[in-house]
Amino acid sequence: MTPSRSDLEADGWAFSLHLYAQPGVAAACLRLQDEAGVDVMMSLIIVFAAVRHRVFLTASEIRELDEACRPWREQIVHPLRAVRRRLKTGPSPAPGSTTGPFRSTIKAAELAAERLQTQLLAERLPLRPPERDAVVPDDIRSVLRSVVTLALEELSGKQLSDLLSAIDVIVGAAMQEKC
User: Domains in the chain: how many in total?
Assistant: First the structure.
């Protein structure tokens, strides 16, 4: 039975939060985000589709998802993230005890924006019967490489090979989430 889009969004969000919390995954995701411009939320939803639904998105499907969520990411998520990160170092009166609660509010808004992005992604995630009976690490590695390759198209100087260790951390954690 095909899941409803709201179930897909809720399950994808829960999966993403759980996977992100696994040892090393947050650091690997942030490395891909900071060094290659990877959309972490989109990456986690693509891994969710592979692990939980055995649907392995093609490069063109990943590009379509990216194009669908790019305006939201660039106009809402990125500005919130930039403000949150800037509050770590200043300007005055940040960082400090008086700006800490404000930074927490911005962080909560950023997380809410990512949840809305998950909804947007779930609405556009290709649904089809499982492509295989089981998921193997190379399946997840392949879709993540496609995500990183897409992000790297906009950057110069960084190579996919520079980021394989971060991909492998996510693959390892995702393989533990198969059930």
Answer: 1
